[in-house]
Q: What sequence folds into this?
């Protein structure tokens, strides 16, 4: 369930704090996912991971190369609503040299399959900055569609940008043949 051709997803643990802290404080990586671009102390990162791990409403996984066990990023389901069968997903490829190589697609495929085939969620949604065209293209390729936009929500590099809200539904995802 959590193993693809080149990567696997393994449960995030407190032992991953140092790696995640490095990614979380990398401006190039966070430019596309963090609204504030804050720098975090190691303690803040520890607390963040601890909260994720203790929450019954989130599931976080480290994206790891199968052969070398090198960590590439993290993907999570957060704000899981078991009653209404939906959750928000996030993904960060923290190792910049692996961007554009299909690892994000493979990781997201595994997470969405898990969401629909095991958790039996009805809907998985996400938020993405409008200038992150590569991510939007990936999400559309996977069957996500735009549900709306928060206009002028983020100020980055001297101008205002929207936050695009996208979602994929269980039936559409499975009908598209993504359940292999």
A:
């Amino acid at each position: 369930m959590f193993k693809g051709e080149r990567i696997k997803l393994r449960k995030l643990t407190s032992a991953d704090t140092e790696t995640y802290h490095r990614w979380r404080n990398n401006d190039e990586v966070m430019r596309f996912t963090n609204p504030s671009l804050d720098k975090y102390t190691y303690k803040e990162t520890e607390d963040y991971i601890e909260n994720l791990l203790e929450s019954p409403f989130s599931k976080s996984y480290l994206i790891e190369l199968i052969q070398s066990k090198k960590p590439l990023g993290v993907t999570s389901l957060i704000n899981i609503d078991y009653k209404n069968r939906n959750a928000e997903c996030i993904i960060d490829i923290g190792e910049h040299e692996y961007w554009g190589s299909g690892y994000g697609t493979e990781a997201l495929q595994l997470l969405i399959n898990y969401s629909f085939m095991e958790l039996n969620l009805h809907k998985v949604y996400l938020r993405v900055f409008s200038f992150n065209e590569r991510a939007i293209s990936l999400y559309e390729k996977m069957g996500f569609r735009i549900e709306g936009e928060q206009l002028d929500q983020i100020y980055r590099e001297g101008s205002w940008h929207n936050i695009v809200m996208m979602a994929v539904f269980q039936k559409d995802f499975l009908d598209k043949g993504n359940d292999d």
In short: The radius of gyration is 16 Å. The chain has six helices and seven strands. The CA atoms of residues 14 and 49 lie 7 Å apart. Strands lie at 7-11, 59-65, 71-81, 86-93, 123-129, 145-156, 159-169.
